[in-house]
Amino acid sequence: MIRAKDAVKAVGQAVIDNKVFLTELDQAIGDGDHGINMARGFERVFEKIDALQDDTDFSTVLKTVGMALISSVGGAAGPLYGTAFLRAAGACKDKTEIDVVTAKTMLDAAIKGIQDRGKAQKGEKTMLDALIPASEAMGKSLADGKDSRACLSAAVQAAADGVEYTKTIIATKGRASYLGERSIGHQDPGATSSTIMLEAVCKVLK
Ligand code: ADP
Ligand code: MG
Ligand code: MG
Are 106 and 98 in contact (CB under 8 A)? Predict the structure, then answer.
């Protein structure tokens, strides 16, 4: 059985491993702090979850993650990802195991949280351009009767395709929107970090 703490550690480690890459992406179209912000946030997350028992349930662990990110990550991404994790926590109360249906419910709750807070839609060159296609692909795979591995792989592939798509569009939310057309040709840092996190969690869930 997968433990929530192990899943979060995998996600956080993937973010920390990509600190420089994410920062370079944000240097091109933002203020060059996305990797630094996110790595700092997950260092804080690790401190907080280390204090929890190893078998702590998903909802409690994810709530801890959300609160740690909100309190330690500045900028746009901290509150947005923090809200996403808090909403995901709310969507898996009392669950000891996360099946794909629950995972999709959690992803959708996270997306709703990001949209409530940041007011962005698909196609604005943000993290949503990875997360929304991931959810859609998961939903389609589930409807097609695919097994959980296939559903998770489809979600990760759709997120990665979403990152590629962000290269082709103009940013209309966040700092990158200040660049207007000059944001074209660059992939969105937040869509990239979302895909990195999704890939890490799906690898653990599979
Ligand atoms: P900041 O731009 O404040 O320095 P970060 O660099 O940490 O914050 O995060 C930038 C990322 O946040 C962007 O790449 C984008 O994906 C995401 N983002 C910015 N504004 C929004 C929004 N309104 N909705 C969703 N995501 C957003
Ligand atoms: Mg930034
Ligand atoms: Mg910043």
Answer: yes
Cβ of 156 below 6 Å from ligand 1: no
Q: Encoding tokens for residue 44? A: 């804080």
Q: Given CATH 1.25.40.340, say whether it is the number of domain 4-205.
A: yes
**Interval 15-63: pLDDT, tens:** 999 999 999 999 999 999 999 999 999 999 999 999 999 999 999 999 9
CA 84/CA 63 separation, integer angstroms: 10
Task: Provide the residue type at 206 as one letter.
Answer: K
Query: In angstroms, what is the span from residue 201 Cα to ligand 3's centroid?
Result: 26
C-alpha 54 to ligand 3 mean position (Å): 33
pTM for this predicted structure:
0.98
Binding site membership of 103 for ligand 1 (Cβ less than 6 Å): no
Query: Which residue among 18, 26, 177 has the greatest number of ligand 1 atoms within 8 angstroms of its CB, and so is best to mutate?
Result: 26
Q: What ipTM describes this predicted complex?
A: 0.99
Q: Where are the domains of the chain?
A: 4-205
* Residue 138 alpha carbon to ligand 3 centre in Å: 31
Residue with tokens 């929530």: 4
Q: Rounded CA gap, 168 and 70, in Å?
A: 30
One-letter identity of residue 60? T
- Residues 20 and 35: their CA atoms lie apart, in Å, by 6
